[in-house]
Amino acid sequence: MTVIARRxxxxxxxGLVMILVVTTISFVIIRNIxxxxxxxxxxxxxxxxxxxxxxxRSVAVLYxxxxxxTMWEQYLDYxxxxxxxxxxxxxxxxxxxVTTLLGSAATWTILPVLVGTLLSFAVGIILGVYAAxxxxxxxxxxxxxxxxxxxxxxxxxxALLLSAVFTTLLxxxxxxxxxxxxxxxxxxxxYIGSLVQYAxxxxxxxxxxxxxxxxxAMKSSVVTVLGDDFILAxxxxxxxxxxxxxxxxxxxxxxxxxxxxxSLGLLFGGAIFIERIFTYPGLGLLLLxxxxxRDYALMxxxxxxxxxxxxxANIVADMLYTAIDPRVRSGQEAS
Amino acid sequence: MTAPVITGGAPGxxxxxxxxxxxxxxxxxxxxxxxxxxxxxRVLRRKPSRIVGVAxxxxxxxxxxxxxxxxxxxxxRDDNAxxxxxxxxxxxxxxxxxxxxxxLVITGARYVLxxxxxxxxxxxxxxxxxxxxxxxxxxxxxxxxxRITDMKLTIPALPLLLxxxxxxxxxxxxxxxxxxxxxxxxxxxxxxxxxxxxxxxxGFIEAARGLGLSSGHIVGRELLPSxxxxxxxxxxxxxxxxxxxxxxxxxxxxxPFDANNWGVMLNLAVFGGGALTTTTALPYMLxxxxxxxxxxxxxxxxxxxxxxxxxxxxxxx
Lengths: 335, 317
Prior knowledge:
The complex is a heterodimer.
Chain A: H1 2-31, H2 37-47, H3 52-63, H4 71-83, H5 98-133, H6 138-152, H7 155-169, H8 189-226, H9 229-236, H10 241-252, H11 254-278, H12 283-292, H13 296-324, H14 326-329
Helix pairs in contact in A: 1-13, 2-3, 5-6, 5-8, 5-11, 5-13, 6-8, 7-8, 7-11, 8-10, 8-11, 11-12, 11-13, 12-13
Chain B: H1 25-46, H2 48-66, H3 101-137, H4 139-154, H5 157-164, H6 173-184, H7 186-199, H8 203-210, H9 215-252, H10 262-272, H11 282-310
Helix pairs in contact in B: 1-11, 2-3, 2-11, 3-4, 3-6, 3-7, 3-9, 4-7, 6-9, 7-9, 8-9, 9-10, 9-11, 10-11
């Protein structure tokens, strides 16, 4: 238990450092944007008859920190607001808190990413075992090369090809949105069915993007385990092939949980493309729109939330690995 | 973006360390080079798909170098053939201005490939330097460098690029390549470090150290040559990562359309031409997609060959 607690503490510390780095990047960028939007906003409000004090407070609400004093004072003001979970207000959606917008968008990103990842994980692992067993055959070659190809292709290429096939040539899926706008949102069969229908292509895009990596990783891992002494011993004892492969799969799957974290991270990055192509209102599309709308408070908030999601994914994956691998759990050195 | 990184297994037979006392050392090196070339050719011949991969990359290299020379600076337009369907004169049809789509792909390749090349060189140079240093020195240096690398890997590169695009417009291919390279070295560093840790315990490195050779010699003349195929693999993989990020940014429309390239084409086809709902602009969208698909396929096939060069034991399978 001490081992797990120590690892968790280390991860949390590093996660906090990451969050500080990202928020600092956001702050520096906001302060260095050409045209100084904060000052422009302030002067515009004063021209409209607002008093200087009122204008200052209005800009502070929008951007999350007071636009006066030294750069260091502004930075501390920004960080102070952040620790109170105050990220400012949106310019493009007047009156809306950044945190509110992020919360609703996050749901639309997290669910498809998780479902897509689990799908690709399951299929990739099964075919990875098969590719390892058949690695000397033509089929093993095809599986490995196709895995490499899918792994190397950008998500938007896969998403655009999916869209070209299923929304343009054979339009059996809707091209954009989250559900049929004529349906009443709620826990009823029609609405849920519509949600699933509209989410199918984004989920497939995530799944295809992740699948190649899994098949390659699992094949590599299985090949390594097949060379281990305990497998040779099992074969010498004449164990059934099926039982041997259960041993192989159980051991070979361990490293893949570490890769899971990086995979999720990449998919969160790819969400920007997939959500743009399918006009799916998640975090990625929110970040993109905030940039085109010059909504800097929302941009900083979205960037921060994506980073936090990746940090959390890393921590969860490592804790999972600790729980799954008996050698780590008992405090011994992992292989 | 973080390019996918292949972590190779243990390298093949260790190379005999060079010593000044051996007469005819230049002849020895020539022999080694000839043997290496012969080995490469044998690996390529084992699978025809690898030769196909080399051919594909050759075509793209030619396209990048000579493509713009095949067409006039301002491509001709046909006002009577806006969004024309594919034909013999226009294999992928025309765009919204009546410009040939194939010509756009070919002339747009230079920007894409030049950026990818610059990115790959910087990514691999930085990643290899950090990875070699961390793996060879170990101890405190290793810890510090790997923490920095982990931090590097955790920052989501694509969102960061989007955020940076609000203050920086990446006006030239080299400038964009520089930014992408500085963002992408983390994965390579980690992979190279793993290889260095593995190699430094090998017999030939121990022998070199026993002979009293300097660290510079051991790293530069023993470790690096042993890892050369592995580094080349990562360089090619970095190319796919660079194409991904660069075409992607233009596709999203966050960078100004100063020059034609594949990302601009995708953006105009999808968001300007409605390629996702009507078939009119579909060829316009599919042409750059096909180019990216073929480029990635070529790289994948060549990396497959390099993997076997780096790991001769794979031939036993």
